[in-house]
Amino acid sequence: MSPTTTAVVSSYARHLPLAERACAFLTSATDPFHAVRAAITKLESAGFTRVQNKSFQSQSIEKGGKYYYTVHHSTLVAFTVGKQYEAGKGGFLIIGGHTDSPTLKVKPKTKKTPKAGTIQLGVECYGGGLWHTFFDRDLSISGKVLVRDADSKIRHKLVQLKDPVARVSTLCIHLQSPEERLAFKVNKEDHTSPIIGMEQAKPSESGSEELEQEIQEQLTGGVTSNAWLAGQEPLLLTRLAQELGCNVNDIADFELNLYDTQPASIGGLGQEFLYSGRLDNLATVFAAVEAMVDGETMGLVESSTDVNMMCFFDHEEVGSVSSHGAGSPVIEEAVRRLGACFHDTKNDSPDLYADTIAKSFILSIDQAHALHPNYASKHDAQHSPLMNHGVVIKTNSNQRYTTNSTTGFMLREVARKADVPIQEFCVRNDCPCGSTIGPTISALTGIRTVDAGMPQLSMHSCREVMGIADLTHGVELFKGFFRHFREVDDCVVDEQS
């Protein structure tokens, strides 16, 4: 190894332990359900207690406590209550992000008419993916399955096939016209159905006959009639039943998606990069959980006058409008219900909630666009963040991002106190601009919000890349937010002179 390479590796060595933990998290978090479960595993190991998503007053929420709950298994809320917290006097310091990523989701009816002797799976494009990157990848299936238990109750069970069972293949170059070779155009309906097997590779003859007989009985009006089952690919149901240890007819429904089986990994000659699927936005989820369970952050609970919180939503990639997306009442309900735990509801008033909102702040964290060396002209020259150079504050005057002069300044001050480098991003006037949960949440709650994120390349690709130093920057910024925000906020006078 040359002296130059040795120096590069050495400069990133301190970031490697965190990056390796991120790789393990990202590899396990193959869909929103597994992302939430991976985060919960970390939270519970740090002493967080699960509470039910209902009235908190009946669940012994205490000052100094650490808690979490989920909404529909794919949205996660975790929080600590400062021992000095008083309703109306303290605020909620919230890190917000999302658990979903663009992917191929399994359709409600998975069975397709066989073509070319192959068995294919019916899938739907979820979000705005770079769909050509999902071709020729070794894909598998994960998600949530509803299973009928022995007592006829419906249980939610997670499933994650580890082996590559599906592949979306490209058309060979020899069968493409010159025009087709110039631009790879994907017809999302015709071209994205993955091959999962050959017709002769169906289950054993007896098992196949049993399943087909069961389906026919249901279609002819049997006692357990279930037309849903008849629309499913037997190969898929059989494999799911094997993984879950249940009978095929116990499967009631599912929410499944495809994922790339290649594990997350450290890359670059100097080990500067993290390669993975779903960095947008599971890198945020990972970094926020790391910051929340850090010993330094936990130590703040004793003297804190605030509630420190993380909210990670599903469905950001499709607009956030759902019962548990950022457009839902999840944050507002969390603030109201937690506040009600610590004051006399008989003396409740609108001012108490308004005072809480005025003291609160949200970091809307979503991955940012790093400058691409091959497409540098796509960035404004003055707003071209680099990988491994710090967290990016995102601004858009058309409110695709919610950052304003006050919230941007406050995050810069927090970063300065935490010794975290900050970069700025503003999209070119001749380019479209993405968006985040920030505008949605700030409009719903009235809470001051800033948009920021760690820079990456290949956003919405099946395989993305970011700098490992920025994971450290993200964790340190989140820790600094919980530690320094109240001090920064107290220095900002909300009066115009």
Provide an overview of this structure:
This protein is an alpha/beta fold and 497 residues long. It is 32% helix and 23% strand. The chain contains 14 helices and 20 strands. It has helices at 3-12, 16-28, 32-45, 178-182, 205-219, 227-230, 234-244, 279-293, 295-299, 330-340, 350-358, 405-418, 438-445, 468-491; strands at residues 49-50, 66-71, 75-81, 92-98, 103-111, 118-126, 139-148, 154-160, 195-198, 251-260, 265-267, 273-276, 307-313, 361-365, 368-369, 391-394, 422-425, 448-453, 455-457, 464-467. A nine-stranded mixed β-sheet has the order 1-2-3-13-4-14-18-16-17, with helices on both faces. A five-stranded mixed β-sheet has the order 11-12-20-19-15. A three-stranded antiparallel β-sheet has the order 5-6-9. α2 crosses α14. The radius of gyration is 24 Å and the shape is globular. Mean pLDDT is 92; it is low at 218-224.
